[in-house]
Amino acid sequence: MLRIFSPKLSVLGLILVPVSGWGQTISFNLEDDLVEDLGVDPTALEEDLTALIGEDLKLLDASEYLSEMAYATQLSLKGMGVDYASNPSTFVVGGAVGSASSGGASNLTRGGSLLPQGGFGAQLVLLAGLNLGQLVPGEAGALNNLVVYVNGMSMAIPSSYPFTGRLSNGGLHLQVKLGGPVKGPFVEWGGIDLTTGYELSTYTLSLDQALPIGDEIGPIDMLWDATGSYTLSATSHSMPIEVSTNVRVTVLSLYGGLGIDLNDSSAVTQASLTGPVLGTVKDREHELGSGGVSFTDSGYGDGYTSRFFFGAQINITLLKLYGQMNLGNHDSFGGHLGVRIAL
User: Fold this and answer.
1) What is the DSSP letter of 80?
2) Is 28 exposed, middle or buried (0-12, 13-18, 19+ CB in 10 A)?
3) pTM above 0.85?
4) How far, in Å, CA of 53 to CA of 300, rounded?
5) What is the DSSP string of 176-232?
6) Distance in angstroms (rounded) separating the CA atoms of residues 266 and 107
7) What are phi and psi for residue 117, nearest 5 degrees?
8) Beta strands at 2-6 and 14-16: parallel, antiparallel or unpaired
């Protein structure tokens, strides 16, 4: 018997499921007599399967989940395209890797989930910066207080999960030093830095293998072995406005600052999945029918956000090893680790 689970319909033969998007449908075509012979009510079985699929594929409160993905993708890039600690007088090059979560600290790990538990984003960045004073022979004056940074990277993320990821980013920043640096024998204060620019970051999850969703439901060990397409893509365009400072004591530099971001961030998901519904009872597998899922949804990040960031850097002559933390709105945080060569 065919049953369709849709957020738009609740009439005879159709069961309402509390999912948030208007483009979501979960349907089953099960052999009711066979399911009953195994000791389970077909309607109850379908409701349990629907709840399980909704939880694993993040169909419940989908727009909120996607908004968290958008915000985490935005936050994951913050600070990776700029050097806040080295006060370069000539140039800086380097790289960093980091991630961010939105909606709670537990979202940094998947646990047993097929998808991130909440908002999550990751980035890998290559960075290059130039002090504009190097463009003018001799005494450059005010140009010595201006550093331009560019960053970018695009790559697939290796994963043992059914969903594989891809990240990409690009950025252009201008950092203006307002006073400083002030140097002493063992201590250096970097002055006040004002940084702004443009940042683009994307984080995409795509299904590239069979998607097994299952659980023990009554006496039956259920499995929906789905195949098809699933894509979740988060994109962020952001303009940061940051004020920061740093201090160095011998080989250790500490820095911190405040940032305000103007954003255009969103996430969209599309899926079309079908597959057999299998039930195992007493080590014997039965094909109970088939199931399908079709949905589209979207979510959006805030147009205006604020954050606080801080970090530490170890200076080994020109080599710099650093780590940074970002704390922002929406119960979110992130961080990254990197290496630089700065002069």
Assistant:
1) T
2) buried
3) yes
4) 23
5) EEES--EE-SSEEEEEEEEEEEEEEEEEEEEE-S-EEEEEEETTEEEEEEEEEEEEE
6) 18
7) -65, -30
8) parallel
Report residue 47 as tokens. 């409701």
CA-to-CA separations, 289 to 30, 49, 156, 223, 273, in angstroms, rounded: 4, 13, 36, 11, 15
What would the pLDDT profile of 6-33 be if each residue is shown by its tens digit? 443 322 233 334 344 456 788 999 999 9
User: Containing domain of residue 96, as a range?
Assistant: 2-342
> Measured between alpha carbons, how far is 182 from 171 in angstroms, rounded to an integer?
29
**Ranges under pLDDT 50 in the chain:** 4-21
The C-alpha atoms of residue 102 and residue 118 are separated, in whole angstroms, by 7
User: How many domains does one find in the chain?
Assistant: 1
Give strand pairing partners of 168: 154, 202
Strand-pair partners of 10: none
Burial group, residue 246, by CB count within 10 angstroms (0-12, 13-18, 19+): buried
Which residue type, as a one-letter code, is found at position 333? F
In this structure, are residues 191 and 179 in contact, taking their beta carbons and an 8 Å threshold?
yes
Give the span between the Cα atoms of 46 and 52, in whole angstroms: 10
The residues, ordered by sequence, that sit 6+ positions from 293 with a Cβ below 8 Å of its Cβ are 24, 25, 26, 27, 53, 57, 226, 271, 272, 273, 274
Q: Is the dihedral of CA 136, 141, 142, 148 positive or negative?
A: positive
Closest by CA position to 244, among listed 198, 177, 144:
177
User: pLDDT tens, 142-200?
Assistant: 899 999 999 999 999 877 778 889 999 999 999 999 988 898 888 999 999 999 999 99
Say which amino acid occupies 1.
M
What's residue 248's pLDDT? 96
Q: Which amino acid is at 211?
A: L
Distances (CA, A) of 7 to 21, 42, 66, 75, 234: 7, 20, 18, 32, 24
273/278 Cα distance (integer angstroms):
15
